[in-house]
From TrEMBL:
The keyword Hydrolase does not apply. It comes from Phaedon cochleariae (Mustard beetle). PANTHER family: ANTIGEN BSP, PUTATIVE-RELATED (PTHR24369), CHAOPTIN-RELATED (PTHR24369:SF210). Keywords: Leucine-rich repeat, Repeat, Signal. One of its GO terms (cellular component) is plasma membrane. It comes from the Eukaryota. This is Uncharacterized protein. It holds the Pfam family LRR_5.
């Protein structure tokens, strides 16, 4: 394959792994991997890919692991990862995607792990993962997600990991989840959340949850603690982000009950504390911008 463009990979009938690491690959053409009938692992990382085209990976019927992280990917064609019935894991973090499309993975029903952390995704659409019944790990930490549409997680009943930390969420509506879902590890830290509704807490059970450095209303945080206890879960703090010098919640005087609404003024007041710390938190612990 050339340094700038990956065209035809030849007839390497026994090849199972192809890796391009830091090779300055800019384009992979449709059909590039035809003629490699046993290919299971493909990696194109630390390169300059900007677009994933339909027809590049679809012909690889045996593909189990795809790594396209650490590129500059802005665009993925509709159904670019469709009909990959052997695909189990995809790693696409550290790119520049600003959107999510459920049709990317149509009929790739054995996918178990997807990692799209540190992109620029803004919204999770309705039924974002509905065609992926075996999905166990979703990493969307470090994006720009400000909205999750109704039924976004429809079809998922049990997850080992759901990463929504370091995004821009002000609310997570109960309608985004099915009627019942078990999540082993849930990350919602470093967002702009004031509360989690009672309806949402009734749907979700966790083994461990990261929720530090949100502008929680104190009565609402108390309810969340009770929920964690009731599900026999554990509260975790992101590595390197522990501190005894910052508040865990904020409240208005004489307010004793959780009011399930977004309070922008309270959020600004809470997040303003971090600008005046004598010992700043490690980078990424809290989102103040």
């Amino acid at each position: 394959m050339g340094n700038k463009n990956c065209q035809n990979s030849g007839y390497l009938v026994k090849l199972k792994t192809i890796s391009f690491w830091g090779c300055n690959v800019e384009t992979v053409e449709a059909g590039a991997f035809k003629g490699v009938p046993q290919l299971k692992n493909v990696q194109i990382s630390f390169s300059n890919l900007k677009k994933i085209r339909m027809g590049v990976f679809n012909p690889i019927e045996t593909l189990e692991l795809l790594r396209i992280h650490d590129n500059r990917i802005e665009t993925i064609d509709d159904q670019a990862f469709a009909n990959l019935t052997s695909l189990k894991k995809i790693y696409a973090g550290n790119n520049a995607l600003s959107y999510w499309h459920s049709n990317w993975f149509r009929n790739s029903t054995n996918l178990q792990t997807m990692d799209f952390h540190n992109n620029k995704i803004r919204t999770l659409p309705r039924r974002a993962f509905a065609t992926l019944p075996k999905l166990k790990r979703i990493n969307l930490d470090w994006n720009e997600i400000s909205a999750i549409e109704s039924e976004a997680f429809r079809g998922l009943k049990k997850l080992q990991y759901l990463g929504l930390g370091n995004n821009r969420l002000t609310v997570i509506h109960e309608s985004v989840f099915p009627s019942s879902i078990q999540i082993s590890t849930l990350l919602i830290n470093a967002n702009y959340l004031n509360y989690l509704s009672g309806e949402l807490l009734n749907k979700v059970s966790v083994l461990e949850v990261f929720l530090d450095y949100n502008p929680w209303k104190c009565p609402c945080l108390k309810e969340i603690y009770a929920w964690i206890h009731s599900t026999k879960g554990a509260l975790r703090v992101y590595d390197g982000c522990g501190s005894n010098h910052v508040p865990v919640c904020a409240n208005k005087k004489s307010v004793l009950q959780c009011s399930e609404n977004v309070d922008e003024e309270l959020s600004r007041r809470y997040l303003g504390v971090f600008a005046n710390l004598t010992k700043p938190l490690a980078s990424g612990c809290v989102r103040t911008n």
